[in-house]
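Priority: medium. Attachment 1 of 2:
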């Protein structure tokens, strides 16, 4: 645990007693604060009371006595409307922050020579894989690494800071909305596409929340920005205009077949990395034009495509040997990891070696089993169409299991990839709507995970004479219609696959 100083003897309101809330209360108490806890759910309050915390109905509390409100990231800060605790805090002039801000304040309270380094990752898609990959590469290089935040362990539950440590933290837009002084040594924005718009009042608010990852960085810190979309390009241009240290990552389609076309697994391009992005020339104005920032130029910053790793045009590693990093999106993740490792002093050789032996992340392009010539891939973490696009684009042909609680737009944006779908097996609330979108693409409404796996496995086995086949779970949906979260959904897929007699895939 990381004790949080600065509130000694003062009352701190803590609302929302899930993982981040109860951990924040423990860290505050360890730092000398008097946390006052509340949750709308009885179970959370009972857990807090069992641990000896002061539990008080915040609807009746005197808010003038609170130093700060620590809000769960699950409670809305601004949209669709502020949570009632936020309104009470604002009325009393009480600041509203979250667990990541407490983490930042705990580190800032240390003498400079005792502070660990921090790498923070956000983005719509890829942030969990990038977080895990960076942590893995740094650990393989011999660094003391603690991984947490929105992935795995709550940030304040990580080990106490030491000067030699590196914290690798995944942060969500909800968490970033609750920060003011969070200043990572390396801050990464992987990509931006529409998501959680109801919580941020639209796309502008969502992007603004993501960009808060850079807000408190100083001139020595590194900003790594994915520039495939206009939002990322504008962020990079704005940061450069402020004199920040910026590197960009641009993904490049395979020259032998873009994401939308057919290609074999050997028709891959290259991942091109350069040691530094060029700074604007004297007199150059890096601000975007009213119609949007200019598209990046090939050779500026990092370039990522599937298959190989190059630096300044020189191939240094064949990423096709990294079984857990298929596809262009994983080459992008590799670029972020490589750039971070090098920025933290890891040698080129150690960084590349770490990429090649990465075992992968559960529920993200995870090979879970094989039945004859049929491979089963668990991409349950693909909770929107953009994430599913990355998985579909990684294989020339798939038997696709999709569905759940649909996001806005459903799978309409994936039409260009439908030719890769041999047949789709639709589950959950979105099944009927997805069936309409798929039109002439072969599909069946399977309703349940077990039935979808059974049908897909049978069809894939019948096609196995044509070579190895892939059954891909990449739902393009949230899980909450049938499962508590994407992890449980992924485990249901794994269980259904193994129940058919499939042999578990060995770790990469």
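Attachment 2 of 2:
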């Amino acid at each position: 645990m990381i004790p949080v100083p600065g509130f000694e003897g003062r009352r701190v309101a803590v609302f929302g007693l899930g993982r981040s809330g109860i951990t924040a209360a423990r860290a505050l108490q360890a730092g000398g604060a008097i946390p006052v806890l509340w949750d709308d759910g009885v179970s959370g309050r009972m857990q807090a009371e069992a641990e000896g915390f002061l539990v008080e109905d915040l609807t009746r509390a005197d808010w003038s006595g609170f130093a700060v409100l620590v809000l769960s990231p699950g409670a809305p800060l601004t949209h669709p409307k502020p949570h009632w605790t936020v309104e009470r805090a604002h009325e009393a002039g009480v600041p509203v922050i979250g667990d990541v801000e407490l983490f930042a304040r705990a580190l800032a309270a240390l003498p400079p020579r005792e502070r660990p380094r921090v790498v923070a990752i956000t983005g719509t898609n890829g942030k969990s894989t990038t977080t895990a990959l960076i942590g893995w590469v740094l650990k393989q290089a011999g660094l003391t690494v603690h991984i947490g935040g929105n992935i795995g362990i709550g940030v304040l539950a990580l080990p106490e800071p030491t000067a030699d440590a590196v914290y690798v933290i995944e942060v969500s837009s909800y968490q970033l909305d609750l920060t003011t002084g969070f200043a990572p040594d390396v801050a990464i924005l992987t990509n931006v596409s529409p998501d959680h718009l109801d919580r941020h009042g639209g796309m502008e608010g969502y992007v603004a929340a993501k960009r808060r990852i850079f807000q408190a960085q100083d001139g020595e810190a590194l900003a790594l920005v994915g520039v495939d979309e206009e939002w990322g390009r504008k962020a990079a241009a704005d940061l450069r205009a402020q004199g920040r240290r910026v590197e960009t990552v641009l993904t490049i389609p395979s020259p032998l077949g873009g994401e939308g076309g057919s290609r074999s697994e050997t028709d891959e391009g290259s991942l091109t990395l350069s040691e530094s992005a060029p700074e604007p020339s004297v007199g150059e104005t890096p601000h975007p034009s009213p119609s949007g920032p200019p598209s990046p130029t090939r050779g500026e910053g990092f370039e990522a495509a599937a298959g190989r790793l190059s630096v300044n045009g020189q191939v240094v590693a064949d990423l096709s040997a990294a079984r857990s990093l298929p596809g262009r999106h994983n080459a992008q993740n590799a670029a972020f990891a490589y750039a971070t490792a090098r920025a933290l002093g890891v040698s080129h050789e150690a960084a590349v070696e770490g990429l090649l032996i990465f075992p992968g992340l559960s529920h993200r392009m995870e090979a879970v089993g094989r039945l004859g010539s049929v491979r089963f891939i668990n991409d349950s973490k693909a909770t929107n169409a953009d994430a599913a696009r990355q998985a579909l684009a990684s294989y020339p042909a798939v038997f696709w299991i999709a569905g759940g609680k649909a996001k806005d737009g459903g799978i309409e944006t994936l039409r260009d990839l439908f030719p890769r779908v041999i047949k789709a097996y639709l589950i959950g609330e979105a099944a009927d709507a997805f069936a309409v979108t798929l039109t002439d693409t072969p599909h069946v409404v399977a309703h349940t995970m077990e039935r979808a796996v059974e049908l897909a496995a049978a069809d894939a086995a019948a096609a196995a004479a044509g070579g190895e086949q892939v059954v891909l779970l990449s739902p393009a949906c949230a899980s909450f219609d049938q499962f508590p979260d994407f992890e449980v959904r992924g485990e249901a897929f794994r269980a259904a696959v193994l129940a058919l007699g499939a042999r578990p895939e060995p770790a990469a």
